[in-house]
Amino acid sequence: MSHRRETQDQGFATRAIHEGYEPLDEQGALTPPVHLTSTFAFESVEQGAARFAGEAPGHFYSRISNPTVEILEKRMASLEGGEAGLATASGMGAITALMWSLLRPGDELITDNTLYGCTHAFFYHGLAEFGIHVRPVDLSDPAKLEAVISDKTRLVYFETPANPTMRLVDIEAISEIAHRHGVQVAVDNTYATPAITRPIERGADFVVHSATKFLGGHGDLVAGILVGSEADMLKVRLTGLKDFTGAVMSPFTAFLVMRGIKTLEIRMARQSASALEVARWLEKHPKIKRVYYPGLESFSQYQLARRQMNDFGGVMAFDLTGGLEAARQFMNHLTLICRAVSLGDAETLIQHPASMTHSVLTPEERAEHGVSDDLVRLSVGLETVDDILDDLSKALDNLKEA
Ligand code: PLP
Fold it and tell me: Which of 4, 60, 67, 139 has the most CB atoms at less than 10 Å from its CB?
């Protein structure tokens, strides 16, 4: 008999710690055991056959499911307010498994103009070569979706906030239009996390995560998560994940992601508070041309940010008055802030999208997608905020001498 409590009516932080696991079912072990096993023994041939046929519960091979990974999947489904979760080897594993499961040649995929570089490359240089029409639309204006959606459209896909420009998309408005046309909606929720925005509660059908970022939270893993309906997640598990990509999450990675998620709510609150302070400080600095952060009143979509986000997250972008050369020198002068891609870690990280995360785009594509050569992306970590400001201040001061 399972001792597991139903926790869905409990608070976010409680579910982030307890959902899907009851210690008394595992000899009292407070932390879920890591089931490092590839395969599972059957009592009989009949039991094995029934599991394969989906007629009996139970695991049979860890490329399909695993007890440790399953706890994380339940936990994430609960936090996102969806029916089921599916863990993958990386964020790109989640995106590719979803797309290979849903799309067929001749289908149209509508995406927002601004996407993470590798997502863009997969859609426009991968899927497009397999007969899928991929169409960029400025989804920050929902009327533009209404104008182009057609009976060929199968899915609408976007990030909010988008990597790296921080552009937002109105999840409710886009989902309403898409659903009126019988089209599903997938949202990459990597930047906001469910602690800040829950797309499924606003009408989206799928949530995609690079769990490498805030969910893991400690820069020590690469992982992905999908959340959606039971039926859709089963389809992705048995096709896109099992047969087409094989991009499954290791049980040990699931253990690390669960450890990260336990502190997600407090980390997001702290990183959002520090980021707001940093954004306000940068905005006033004479060497900074513009700061893109949803929590600033000067942000063009500030009202949407307030409506759709509980808080504003730890990531921002900005450009310097001196352009690209000034940005390079400034980044090289930093001593505490680490020059590295990725985001959502305890360490504050800075990177240059045009030459790093978005270098897979051509210069024309970058210009089209608003990724200027001058743009710098900053992921504010958990260090003492005064130390982050001090490092930024000294690096900007040093520009004088350059
Ligand atoms: N989505 C977004 C918004 C990202 O920033 C990233 C990675 O930077 C990905 C997806 C891909 O995730 P991963 O690196 O875990 O494959």
Answer: 139
Residue with CA nearest ligand 1 atom 6: 210
> pTM for this structure?
0.96
Q: How confident is the model at residue 368 (pLDDT cuts 50, 70, 90)?
A: confident
- Whether 97 contacts 337, CB under 8 Å: no
Q: What is the chain's mean pLDDT, rounded?
A: 95
Homologous superfamily, domain 265-401: Aspartate Aminotransferase, domain 1 (3.90.1150.10)
Tens of pLDDT, residues 338-367: 999 999 999 999 999 999 988 888 888 888
- Could you tell me which CATH number the domain at 12-261 has? 3.40.640.10
Ligand 1 centroid from CA 116, angstroms:
7
CA–CA separation, 103 vs 112, rounded Å?
17
Structure tokens at 269: 């609150």
Residue of 196, 209, 213, 257 with the most ligand 1 atoms within 8 Å of its CB, for mutation:
213
Sequence spans of domains, the chain:
12-261, 265-401
